[in-house]
């Protein structure tokens, strides 16, 4: 699930485009503060990495990660501080300071884009990848 889609045009800007591996498509949120993406996994997973590619100028200065097991309330996992660039950003601490994800076991993950670099609060994500293992 996502917080919003630009002009409600899910065909052109919907959430599925974050996962289609195409450089031509993206999820584009509508304007507003605190856009978010929620991922419900079919099985319990141990998340170890997060890959995200924004469109420069439409990224977030602060991303809050929350997660939980099935039937539980979301709890904060960590804050991430991505750069406002077009390149893929990976959650390895050694590659990018301030962009680290602790290994976490969960069934649901929520990424909240707290502080958009766009004046209107829009977020554009070309690729979102959550790596880890199924339990």
UniProtKB/TrEMBL annotation:
<dbReference type="GO" id="GO:0005634">
    <property type="term" value="C:nucleus"/>
</dbReference>
<comment type="similarity">
    <text>Belongs to the NR2C2AP family.</text>
</comment>
<dbReference type="InterPro" id="IPR008979">
    <property type="entry name" value="Galactose-bd-like_sf"/>
</dbReference>
<protein>
    <recommendedName>
        <fullName>Nuclear receptor 2C2-associated protein</fullName>
    </recommendedName>
</protein>
<keyword id="KW-0539">Nucleus</keyword>
């Amino acid at each position: 699930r996502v917080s919003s889609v630009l002009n409600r045009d899910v065909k052109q800007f919907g959430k599925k485009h974050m996962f289609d591996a195409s450089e031509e498509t993206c999820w584009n949120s509508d304007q507003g503060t605190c856009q978010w993406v929620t991922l419900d996994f079919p099985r319990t997973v141990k998340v170890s990495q997060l890959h995200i590619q924004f469109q420069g100028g439409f990224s977030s200065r602060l991303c809050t990660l929350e997660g939980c097991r099935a039937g539980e309330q979301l709890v904060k996992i960590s804050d991430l501080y991505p750069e406002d660039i077009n390149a893929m950003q990976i959650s390895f601490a050694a590659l990018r300071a301030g962009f680290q994800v602790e290994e976490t076991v969960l069934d649901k993950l929520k990424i909240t884009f707290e502080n958009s670099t766009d004046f209107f609060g829009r977020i554009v994500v070309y690729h979102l990848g959550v790596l880890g293992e199924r339990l």
